[in-house]
Amino acid sequence: MTAQIASSQFLLRSRDPALQSRPAEAGVIGWVASRLLPLVPRSIVHAVASRYVAGEDLAAASAVVRSLNARGYEATLDVLGEDAKDAEVADHTVHDYLDVLDRIRSDSLRCNVSLKLTHLGLRLDRDAAKCRLLRIARRARALGNFVWIDMEDSTVTDATLETYRAVQADGGPVGAVLQSCLKRTVEDAKDLAARGATVRLCKGIYQEPRAIAFRGREEVRMSFLAAAEALLRGPGTFVAFATHDRPLIERCLDLAARMEVPADRFEFQALLGVPIEDVLDRLVSRGIRVRVYVPFGEEWFPYASRRLKENPRIASYVLRQMFTPRGMEAGRRASRQRGGT
Ligand code: FAD
Question: pTM of this prediction?
Answer without folding.
Answer: 0.86
